[in-house]
Amino acid sequence: MDDRVLPEMSAKVMFLSKQDDASSAGSAPVITVPLSSVITRQERKVVLVVRDGTVIESPVTVGEILGDRIAVLEGVAVGDQCVVRPDPSLTTGTRVKTHGQ
Prior knowledge:
This protein is mainly beta. 4% of the residues lie in helices and 36% in strands.
C-alpha cells in the first residue's frame, strides 16, 4: 500500500476514447484549453490569449470536449497563455499581469 494515499483522498480521472492505430498514426497532438477559456463574442468562439502582457482576442475552431477541457483545432498555438474565466471587460489591447510576473 502506498503511504501517500490516505483515507478521504480523491482523484480526478479522465478516460479518453481509444482510436484505431491506423487513424492515430502520424496525427499531431491535440491542443486543449479549459472549457471556461472559450467564450462567444459577436457570434463567434474566441479565446483570450496573453502575449507580452497584452490581451489578444483569438477566434478559434473547437473540437471534442475532453472532461473539463476542449480541443482547439485552430486559433491557439502550443505555449499560448490563455485567460481562464475571462471577465467580459477584457478586450484586445487590455494590459494584464500573469502569474509569475
